[in-house]
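FYI - complex with PBG, inputs then prediction.
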Amino acid sequence: MMNNTRRPRRNRKSAAIRHMVSETQLTVNDFIYPLFLIEGENTKEEVVSMPGIFRYTLDLLLEEIREAMDLGIMTFCVFPSLPESKKDKMATESTNEDGLYLVALKTIKEKFPEVCIMTDVAMDPYSSDGHDGIVENGEILNDETLEVLAKMAVAQAKMGADVIGPSDMMDGRVGYIREALDQAGYTNVSIMSYTAKYASAFYGPFRDALDSAPKFGDKKTYQMDPANATEALLEAELDYMEGADMLMVKPALAYMDIIRLLKDNFNIPITAYNVSGEYAMIKAAAEKGWLDGEKSMMEMLLSIKRAGADAILTYFAKDAARILKR
Ligand code: PBG
């Protein structure tokens, strides 16, 4: 016989005790559901590398939002997928008030005023170069891009966006956007900054979904090096000082330490983006019968929350909400 007075297993001996001492609870309020929007009507196309995730025309996107709301999901992040013909070097289409994205934001907000709509601010969906900023001689221009991003943000706010999500990683963009929003009278519109956004291979399926892969090179001169953690603190400090209301870490799964680091060092909500590649990995393994898809999904989401995320952008939002409802 061991003579231990401390036996941690005593707190695991029944479901009742395990629930009583459980430190982390995942709820449907934690989820932000990313959605892909395409032109046209009455069409939804499944993203090949993301089974169960579709690109919707606006009419069907509204139905998808309704369905998600019935499961208790109240925050949505919409990404547009544009035909090449609408793309140019300056992402002009991003401020077209009759264009796909801005009309969609307005329509969603009119139809469902109670939901929280988060946007994406970056040039890549509208850029013929497929980069998040203006490209000149193979370089991504920082300060010139800020003006484009600020105009995009103000146009989105005008359509009723609740939260602006700059995902571009240009230096100084949070402050620049904050000032533009305030000057235009949108002092109440929030900014959830993609603060620690890494140059990651896990975005692959998303770029398939939006046809937004860079036409040349990679995004390493603006997105962060996966080797760096201290630099995430610098990015967070800048975004905080520049007025971000929430700080995001992206991707989530391979960056749990960064989520915890920001959670421990900042007094505003920390969010995490459970990105397309993280979704695809679980779906693919589950399809092959190599993983229990539901259990690994729930464990992944719970762990992201335990790491310190106050909210999680996840393509699993509906699947997980259904399980939480049971
Ligand atoms: C682009 C953007 C990306 C994602 C969100 N916004 C991809 C990229 O930076 O190339 C990725 C999301 C995902 O993989 O789920 N501004």
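The chain has a mean pLDDT of 97. The first strand starts at residue 31 and ends at 38.
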